[in-house]
Design brief:
CATH class of the largest domain in chain B: Mainly Alpha
Largest sheet of chain B: 2 strands, antiparallel
Number of helices of chain A: 10
Oligomer: heterodimer
Distance between the termini of chain A: 134 Å
Largest interface: A-B, 67 and 58 residues
Strand order of the largest sheet of chain B: 1-2
Shape of chain A: elongated
Structural class of chain A: mainly alpha
Number of domains of chain B: 2
Helix content of chain B: 55-70%
Radius of gyration of chain B: 23 Å
Helix content of chain A: over 70%
Order of helices and strands of chain A: HHHHHHHHHH
Structural class of chain B: mainly alpha
Number of strands of chain A: 0
């Protein structure tokens, strides 16, 4: 046949083979490259630790024997939303700083990839929670995150308050011992001063008394200066005179 | 976190009588979380809405606010009469009442109420010369509400001065002045502290 006779098949097979090898090698390269990239992205450490509340909620949801009542599921969903709130706050606050660091080249690209994955995950998670909430009660999805945010705020507040108020006992004890210490020292000082000279004693007593609770060391100092002898006093006086 | 369509199945068990969830075996984090869950569940059971979900935070249930207000009023009355110990007790009850609000109610409201009550209790403690308790109460009051709480700042400062902790009092009052500058009471207290320090050293 005419057209096929005119073709030199051997010579034509060379460019065809060339094209075939070129396309084939490009394809294998790209597929291997993409597979590796996906693997590396998947093996990146997740941004957040395990989402315990989500696991609890889903475990409860899938429990069949016996079925978990709705009220517990609602509570578990609320706990899950609370954790989501704290995560979304973290993501929002970290994003700006991370962007700046990335622009300056202070952090690697994989950190940014991890972060973006976390961001996407948390968005899906929020959507999922809203859907679940709406399934329990109409329009609960609109308020569940408000409630959850108050819930976490309230927990934080009470924790902080407990921390402070629990110091009351130890403070009380400290103050009781401190007060009795000061009192006994003052009494002792008064007695001493009385036997030495009644005039100085009364001065020291009133000084110390007006500084109720000041450090005893400084009280001692005051007494020492008081009874320090005439040399110092005259010295001070001379200085004053010199200034005038 | 895993991808959206998988999760880790946890070994959870429900007590059929009490409806309490427990895990077997459990690590510490899981145990804590389940405790919180059970507590929240108990709170949710008493919520009055027909759907059994917590109501939106904004319209607050007025009964509790009224009760707290009543306790505070009687505390104030006792304080005016001079029954300071009784006033401390009543303020304590009111604080417990305010902290007993369901946790999904606005935290800002709780802060406001508790801060005022703690400040009042600090004053009643100070009137009995219980400086240590007064200092702790005032500190807690300030922690709940830092701005516009000059009384709280002043009361802890005063208590610290009375206990002779002048250094602490000075830093405390300086902090307080950063939040509410030109509060005459605080400025006065600061001058007092400086005078005392100059006198005692």
């Amino acid at each position: 046949m005419w057209p096929f006779d005119a073709v030199d098949w051997v010579m034509l097979s060379i460019p065809i083979a060339y094209l075939f090898i070129l396309v084939g090698s490009l394809y294998t390269f790209s597929s291997i490259y993409r597979k590796r990239k996906a693997y590396r992205a998947a093996s990146l450490e997740p941004w957040f630790p395990q989402h315990l509340q989500r696991d609890i909620y889903l475990s409860l949801l899938h429990q069949e024997d016996p079925k978990v009542p709705d009220s517990i599921l609602k509570a578990a969903l609320l706990r899950r939303a609370t954790e989501d709130i704290s995560r979304i706050i973290q993501v929002r606050s970290q994003k700006q700083a991370l962007q700046v660091l990335l622009q300056r080249g202070s952090v690697g690209d994989d950190l940014w990839q991890r972060f973006q994955r976390a961001e996407k995950e948390i968005e899906d998670e929020l959507r999922d929670v809203v859907q679940e909430a709406n399934a329990f009660a109409p329009n609960w999805g609109q308020t569940i995150f408000q409630s959850a945010s108050e819930l976490s705020q309230n927990n934080l507040l009470r924790q902080r308050l407990d921390e402070i108020l629990s110091t009351a006992d130890s403070e009380r004890q400290w103050w009781d011992t401190r007060r009795s210490q000061i009192q006994s020292e003052l009494l002792g000082e008064l007695d001493q001063d009385k036997t030495k000279s009644p005039k100085e004693g009364s001065v020291a007593g009133s000084v110390a008394g007006s500084f109720r609770g000041t450090k005893t060391a400084s009280d001692d100092d005051a007494v020492l200066v008081e009874s320090g002898g005439p040399a110092e006093k005259t010295g001070k006086g001379k200085k004053k005179k010199g200034k005038h | 976190m895993e991808s959206a369509d998988t999760f880790t199945l946890l070994p959870l068990v429900m007590d059929p009588a009490t409806k309490a969830i427990s895990a077997n075996p459990a690590n510490a984090a899981l145990k804590n979380e389940l405790e919180a869950l059970n507590a929240l569940h108990r709170g949710l059971l008493s919520v009055g809405t027909p759907t059994g979900t917590p109501p939106p935070p904004v319209p607050v249930n007025p009964t509790r606010s009224a009760q707290i207000g009543k306790l505070r009023e009687s505390g104030n009355n006792e304080f005016r009469k001079g029954n300071h110990a009784q006033a401390v007790k009543l303020y304590g009850l009111a604080i417990d009442m305010a902290l007993g609000r369901p946790h999904w109610e606005p935290s800002g409201l709780v802060r406001e109420e508790v801060s005022g009550l703690l400040s009042n209790r600090a004053q009643a403690n100070m009137a009995q010369q219980n400086w240590a308790e007064g200092a702790v109460d005032a500190e807690a009051s300030v922690e709940m509400k830092k701005a516009d709480n000059a009384k709280g700042w002043w009361r802890r400062g005063k208590c610290l001065v009375e206990m002779g902790r002048l250094e602490e009092a000075e830093t405390w009052v300086r902090q307080g002045l950063e939040f509410g500058a030109n509060e005459p009471d605080l400025v006065q207290l600061k001058q007092d502290i400086e005078k005392r320090k100059a006198g005692s050293v």
